[in-house]
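Input chain follows. Return structure tokens only.
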Amino acid sequence: MMKISDFDLIIFDIDDTIISESQFNLSGFKFISKIISQDKKIHEEDLFGKFQYYYELGFPKIFNKTLDFFNLKYDDIYIENLVQKFREHSPQIKLYDDFLIVVKYLRKNNKKIGIITDGFKKTQRNKINYLKLDEIVDYIIVTDELGKEFWKPHPLSFEKMKNYFEIDYRKMVYIGDNPLKDFAIKRNYPIFTVQINRNGLYSKLKYLDDIEPDLIVSSLDELI
């Protein structure tokens, strides 16, 4: 079995790879509950409970449904503002323990560490800043800062990562969770890909173009 130390550059996704995306979303719902509570004079706990209920059931338009449930008046602009505040809130999140274990191991073995992440740039930068990821890894690419058209599976972010470290693609590993976009880079370059399966939001999707990862793990420390 491959060991992560066989490679020179290990690149991670963020959501459901090194943090829980559900934890971020629940953090956002708490933040929005406080805003609506102040606007509409309703208990924050009641709002959050309903947000959580709809979220866990996978309902769309959770803000609308929650406001409708409590018979609260709103318009499209109010919803748009809530969505923006949700995306841009400073999240209450933490890194997975197995990621920190792997980082310690990689540093001990003098490996380079990168991050390539999709998502709205303000949202992702808030996560990065809150978690102080700039102090943990060597180079971070938020694909939205390149342009929406360069979100994964577009290869540009991987090309920039290669050029930054001046490294061969065969010495790179990409670790992600999303079958629809995280492993199709193998159409372009011989990067070793790993799927971390934490039963996250996108874990049950089909692989894009049937391109499967080279390895599937349930915990990052399996790579050691």
